[in-house]
Amino acid sequence: MKKTLLLLLMFIGFGAMGQTKNELLEHYQAYYNEMRLQGDVVGVIGALTHLNVLAPSQERRDTLSFIYMNNGQHLQALNTIGIEKNDSDSDLAIQVKAVSLKALNQPKRALEQFEALFKRDPSPYLAYELADLKIQTGDTAGAGTNIEYGIANAQDDMKYAFYERQQPYEVPLKAAFYHLKGLLTFNLDQNNIDVAIAAMDEALKLEPNFNLASLSKQALESRKEKPEGQE
């Protein structure tokens, strides 16, 4: 009799737990939907975290890491999904790892993730990120290949944002590639300043208000007028 009563109580307990879990899932799903509707990022993160604890899924984890990334919380984004390169990762997870690692000044690790994305779905935007990171990490040949791909494939309506001024601004993506081409040319041969300046001119022809290209051109012209080591 006691054994039967104990089993009955256990079944009732399990049933109540299951009901409570379902109710919590419904609550946090409704809360998540409401926070999205209100544009409350903190609320969305909290709701997704609770949902993932109650019913873990890779899709929720990827979404949570993406929201962290979009909110500039790159360390939290990587803590959510890790930094390892996994062939089984979703495109979203790889994007989060690539962008967050770059933001945290980990160019070699970021490059690995951007390469994975580019293999899945090549695009001029990814080629730009690859070229930029390869210049930073010393892969000049690889950077050159990505730059030429970008110049050949960037469409007129494609833009790239720069943030070196207080007010961010956009330029044609092809102009951004010509700027990188000028930098790469100078890095490869510092006596080849005229060719590097010509690349900057191409960038400025596409976008006369391209501040970074203008600054780079001025620096190159200064080097030409006053070679390094000359007082």
Give an overview in words.
The protein has helices spanning about 1-40, 40-55, 60-70, 75-80, 90-105, 105-120, 125-135, 140-155, 175-190, 195-205, 210-225, and strands at about 160, 170. By secondary structure, the protein is mainly α. The chain has a two-stranded antiparallel sheet. Helix 1 runs antiparallel to helix 2 (about 40-55), helix 3 runs antiparallel to helix 4 (about 75-80) and helix 5 runs antiparallel to helix 6. The longest helix has about 35 residues, at about 1-40. Residues about 5-20 have low confidence and may be disordered.
Layout of SSEs?
Layout: H1 2-38, H2 41-54, H3 58-70, H4 74-81, H5 91-103, H6 107-120, H7 124-137, H8 140-153, E1 159-162, E2 169-172, H9 173-188, H10 193-206, H11 211-225
Antiparallel strand pairs: 1-2
Helix pairs in contact: 1-2, 2-3, 3-4, 3-5, 4-5, 5-6, 6-7, 7-8, 7-9, 8-9, 9-10, 10-11
